[in-house]
Design a protein that fits this description.
Elements lengths: L8 E4 L5 H12 L3 E6 L2 H15 L4 E5 L5 H15 L4 E4 L14 H29 L2 E6 L12 H21 L4 E8 L5 H14 L3 H10 L9 H11 L11 E4 L8
Parallel strand pairs: 1-2, 1-4, 2-3, 4-5, 5-6, 6-7
Helix pairs in contact: 1-2, 1-8, 3-4, 4-5, 6-7
């Protein structure tokens, strides 16, 4: 199947590692012009070189961006447009907020999580919409968590603001459909990333057991029996933002190996 992504312009936030990096790599492999963003310039430079070498696609650029800063987001989008001329796809992504229960997080933690995991998505969407509307099409995909279907114990901040992402996307799917702009949300389950390693480590310390036991217990709850690979989620993300998807919008899709049992 031709996904129609050759020469399409794609911005991937938080793409120097993890799910963002894997997704950017997959877009580049399909011939898209990819624009990476994160706060770590050294990691961005290394990732961009890896993707160019791994895919043979020279059209991989990057910009240092603090997605909690509105001016930084504006600059990112301006640079992407200057580099590629237009924006066909926006991948909203951000690192997860700290773990903790309600009694363990203070106002500063709530504000940080709001700005990082929800307001940053709002701001990025706001900046790309004029370009997508001008060209009469666009795809937006928000990376969230499996908690959009089933809250995860000990992740009160993530549970709250990931749910907000789904409300945002569902509302915007109604408002943007007339502009031929599709917006969806993807919810990773236990995917093998630094974030999941960190959460396993937190659980290991809390329970006083080896991290290997934490992972084994988590894998027993996944019908497929293992953590997912970043590339497995990336392929789904790329499909949802390709020309092969012309009718799915406002939806929330889990990539979790069957872990979540909610309907």
């Amino acid at each position: 199947m031709d996904l129609g992504l050759k020469d399409k312009s794609v911005i991937v936030l938080a793409s120097s590692k993890g799910l963002g990096k894997a997704t950017a790599h997959q877009f580049a492999a399909e011939g898209a012009r990819v624009f990476l963003a994160s706060r770590d310039e050294d990691a961005l430079e290394k990732t961009a070189a890896e993707i160019r070498d791994g895919t043979g696609n020279p059209s991989v650029a990057y910009s240092v961006c603090d997605i909690k800063n509105v001016d930084s987001i504006k600059q990112l989008v301006d640079q992407a447009v200057s580099e590629h001329g237009l924006i066909d796809v926006l991948i909203n992504n951000a690192g997860g907020p700290p773990a903790g229960t309600f009694d363990e997080v203070d106002d500063d933690a709530w504000q940080h999580a709001f700005e990082l995991n929800l307001l940053s998505f709002v701001r990025a969407i706001r900046e790309v919409l004029p370009y997508m509307r001008e060209q009469g099409r666009g795809h937006i995909l928000n990376f969230a968590s499996s908690s959009i279907k089933q809250p995860i114990d000990g992740l009160i901040l993530s549970n709250t603001f990931r749910a907000g992402i789904t409300g945002l996307a569902k509302s915007l799917s109604q408002e943007l459909a007339g502009d031929n702009i599709l917006i969806n949300t993807i919810g990773p389950g236990r995917i093998g990333t630094d974030r999941v390693d960190h959460l396993d480590s937190v659980q290991s310390d809390k329970l006083g057991i080896p991290i290997e036991e934490v992972k084994e217990e988590a894998e027993r709850k996944i019908p497929i029996g293992r953590y997912g690979e970043p590339e497995e989620l990336a392929r789904i993300a790329v499909f949802l933002c390709s020309l092969a998807n012309s009718y799915v919008t406002g939806q929330s899709l889990l990539v979790d190996g069957g872990m979540v049992k909610a309907l």
